[in-house]
Amino acid sequence: VATQVAAVYEYGELEGAFYVSMEYVEGSDLARVLAHGALSEERAVHIAYQLCQMLEQCHAYTAEVSGREVHGIVHGDIKPENIRLQGDDRVRVLDFGIAKHLSQQRRYTRNLFGTPPYTPPERLERGLVDPQSDLWAVAVVLYLMVSGYPPYAGGDEELEQRIRAGDP
Length: 168
Fold this sequence. Notes:
- The protein has 168 residues and is an alpha+beta fold.
- It has five helices and ten strands, in the order E-E-E-H-H-E-E-E-E-E-E-H-E-H-H.
- The chain has helices at 30-34, 41-60, 121-126, 131-147, 156-165, and strands at residues 8-14, 17-22, 28-29, 62-65, 68-74, 83-86, 90-93, 100-102, 109-110, 128-129.
């Protein structure tokens, strides 16, 4: 995972505001690449596969934080704008700003933030976030890469209703 996410150099609080100093990641974000049209199936699968590898490691991550065991990290906002492509389509994932950890006792956590087109129905309904939430987002990104358009469209309210109803 360390090679697929931006490195964090420093974090803290300055004048009452939290800050994070991170690596600058060269490349083009996937949204800009997709602005030129759909990708070949081979290229799209190559990118999606790397995303799945990175997420598998995040979802299996364990650590001790402040004396508490943390099991699994859910990114929570996988979307083309947060996917940076480097030479040979090497995937780097950015913006873990709304990432959540899953505790050992819970299989999911709550988070109402995210980007609606990439948000699964259960998260829209109840705010439930789990590893499958990230996989839903990867599937939406894969669909977008191959077709050139998102599986669900509309204004925010219509979009959310379509996702909840499974009405692409």
